[in-house]
Amino acid sequence: MENNLDLLTKKLYAEGVEKARVDAEALLSGARAQAEKLVADAMQEAAEIRKRAEQDAAALAKKSETELEASARMAVDALKQEITGLVAGRVADGMARQVMEDRKFVQGMVLEIVKRWDVSSGGLDLAVVLSDREKDDFRQYVEQECQELLGKGLEIQGGGAGATFSVCPRDGGYKVVFSEDSFRAFFSRYVKGIVKKMLYQES
Length: 203
Hints:
By secondary structure, this protein is mainly alpha-helical. The protein has a domain at 1-46. It has 5 helices and 3 strands; from the N terminus they run ααααβββα. The chain has helices at residues 2-100, 104-116, 126-129, 132-151, 180-200; strands spanning 154-157, 164-170, 173-178. Strands 1-2-3 form a 3-stranded antiparallel β-sheet. Residues 32-63 form a coiled coil. It comes from Candidatus Odoribacter faecigallinarum. This is V-type ATP synthase subunit E. Keywords: Coiled coil.
C-alpha cells in the first residue's frame, strides 16, 4: 500500500513538474514572441520617425534654399534699381543744368518737345513726341552721359547702413565693387526675414 502511495506521489509530482515545465515554456515562448513583436514595431516606428525627420529636414533645407535664392535675387534687383536710379538721376541733373547753360542739343530737344506737346492730352510721352532720329540721338546722348559718369566711378549707398558699393569701368564694361562688410550689410536685411520665419515657424 505504501509502495502504491509512493508511486502515486511520484507520478503526481512528475506530472506536476512536466505541466509546470510545459506552461513555463508556453509562457516563455509567448513572452519571446511578444518581445520580438515589440522590438519589430519599435524598429518600424523608429524607421518611420527617421524617414519623416529626414523628409522634414530636406523640405526645410529646400525651402530655406529657395527663400535664400529669392532673397539674393531681390537684393541684386534692389542693387540694380539703386544703380539705375542713381545714374539716371545724375544724367537727368546734368541735362537740366545743360539746358540752363545753353547746350544746343538738349535745348533743341526741349524746344521740339514743347512744340509737339499736346497739352490737352495731359501726359507727356517722349516715345510719341520724338521722331525716330531724335529718339536715336537722345539714346546716344544718354549713353554718352552715362559712360562719362560711370567712367569716373560712382559710389552707391544701398540696402542699409554700411552697404557702400562702387561702380567703376573694367574691361570695356562696368564692375560693381564692394567690401565684405558692405556685402554683409546689403544682404542682411533680406536674410533676416527668412531666418525669423525659420526660427519662429512664421508663415
